[in-house]
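Is this the right way to post structure tokens for a design question? Let me know if I should format differently. Anyway, here goes:
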């Protein structure tokens, strides 16, 4: 984004785990921020009987608190982005945002696999949210930059002996005239859940709208986000971010932290050799900002950036947390339909070139999460940490 005037950023899904700290960060940088959210994540908590361990406030209370602390105003619009393209188009006309950050999707792989209804909901919600955003942008003619939160998981978790590139793979397509001709194609997808499948289908929508309608789009392939608070959300208890630790919404890091806080062994599924990509929340928020400030030009293909700090095996995560907390590690049968072991290597070159220096799990900043887990452990329902039925859940959520 150019830097001459106050810019406006729409944060779709700005009430969520990643969206809320991003909205505060963008506001703190002096930008006009508008949160658009239908509060479906809070409603799904009611459906499943899950809850954030931290006592998150209503959007109104959060924003009042932020205004009192910072003197800055964030607008809030309650809207189902997947349902109302005209309303979304109207918002683009009204605010004429320089950028739209799109977090507004159902983001749990286990949730997307619970039943046929949940599969269908995830596809409809995620694809229609993306389609409506692209169509509203096209209709409004506002030259905004769309930054979407995708997932490293679109490439699957089967072992590959190459490093996952940033979206595109160079392949040789020989012909009689050009036996060594090389072209770049979107890296093949291998989704391991309906949730991941929806991210793959998003990518196809982005490809079309960038090529056909010249929309400027960045797709961030993000790893599992760990941590709870950022510098800004920790300024007041009333700004606290959500902390999910249950088997549907919690990542492996949070589940282990919660078990450690309760003096329960860390339950590693199988032999713990499943490898995933990770990034700390504060780093994720900073990377979104780097992406916003470095948009593709109109006519460019979709800019894919891997928003990842490091790749770790589940056992590595357990070992770090065990080393820091003294918790024991125990091995349980894997209830998930996933490969018992995989290797994974993911480049984060494009963010490194922009100055991104990742925080690693072992470095200790995660202590903040241990403190959260300790502080609220009286409210924990331990039964919710393990999945209810073997085979019920597939993969990590990111
Ligand atoms: N959290 C992670 O570890 C992680 C990792 C990789 C990618 N991502 C992606 O980042 C994005 C945000 O993830 P999160 O962890 O903050 O999830 P979240 O569920 O906490 O936040 C998503 C927000 O979007 C809102 N939303 C969903 N559908 C909507 C709709 N149709 N209209 C308006 N609002 C809607 C929800 O109410 C919620 O507030 C997701 O797209 C997710 O796939 C997250």
């Amino acid at each position: 984004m150019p830097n001459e005037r106050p810019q406006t950023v729409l944060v779709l899904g700005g009430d969520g785990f990643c969206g809320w700290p991003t909205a505060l960060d963008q506001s703190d940088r002096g930008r006009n921020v508008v949160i658009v959210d239908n509060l479906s994540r809070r409603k799904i908590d009611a459906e499943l009987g899950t809850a954030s361990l931290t006592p998150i406030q209503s959007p109104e209370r959060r924003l009042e608190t932020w205004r009192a602390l910072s003197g800055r105003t964030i607008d809030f619009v309650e809207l189902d982005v997947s349902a109302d393209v005209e309303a979304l188009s109207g918002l683009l006309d009204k605010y004429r945002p320089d950028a739209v950050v799109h977090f507004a999707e159902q983001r749990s792989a286990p949730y997307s696999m619970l039943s046929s209804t949940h599969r269908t909901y995830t596809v409809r919600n995620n694809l229609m949210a993306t389609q409506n955003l692209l169509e509203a942008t096209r209709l409004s003619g506002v030259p905004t930059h769309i930054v979407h939160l995708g997932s490293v998981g679109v490439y699957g978790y089967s072992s590959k002996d190459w490093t996952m590139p940033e979206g595109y793979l160079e392949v040789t397509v020989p012909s009689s005239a050009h036996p060594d001709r090389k072209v770049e194609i979107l890296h093949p997808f291998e989704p391991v859940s309906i949730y991941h499948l929806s991210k793959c289908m998003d990518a196809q929508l982005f490809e079309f709208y960038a090529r056909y309608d010249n929309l400027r789009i960045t797709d961030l392939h993000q790893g599992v986000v760990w941590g709870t608070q950022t510098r800004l959300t920790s300024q007041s208890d009333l700004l606290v971010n959500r902390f999910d630790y249950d088997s549907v919404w919690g990542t492996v890091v949070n589940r282990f932290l919660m078990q450690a806080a309760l003096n329960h062994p860390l339950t590693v599924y199988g032999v713990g050799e499943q490898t995933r990509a990770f990034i700390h929340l504060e780093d994720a928020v900073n990377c979104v900002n780097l992406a916003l400030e470095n948009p593709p030009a109109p006519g460019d293909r979709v800019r894919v950036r891997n928003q990842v700090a490091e790749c770790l095996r589940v056992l590595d995560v357990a070992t770090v947390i065990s080393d820091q907390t003294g918790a024991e590690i125990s091995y349980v049968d894997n209830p998930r339909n996933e490969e018992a072991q995989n290797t994974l290597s993911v480049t984060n070159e494009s963010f490194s070139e922009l100055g991104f220096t990742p925080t690693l799990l072992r470095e200790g900043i995660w202590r903040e999460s241990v403190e959260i887990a300790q502080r609220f452990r009286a409210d924990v329902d331990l039964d919710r940490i393990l999945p209810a039925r073997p085979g019920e859940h597939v993969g990590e959520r990111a």
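Format looks fine. Someone answered above. Worth noting: Residues 8-384 form a domain with the Rossmann fold fold (CATH 3.40.50.720). The pocket of nicotinamide-adenine-dinucleotide is lined by residues 13, 15-19, 37-41, 80-82, 103-107, 125, 129, 149, 151, 222, 224-225, 251, 398 (CB under 6 Å).
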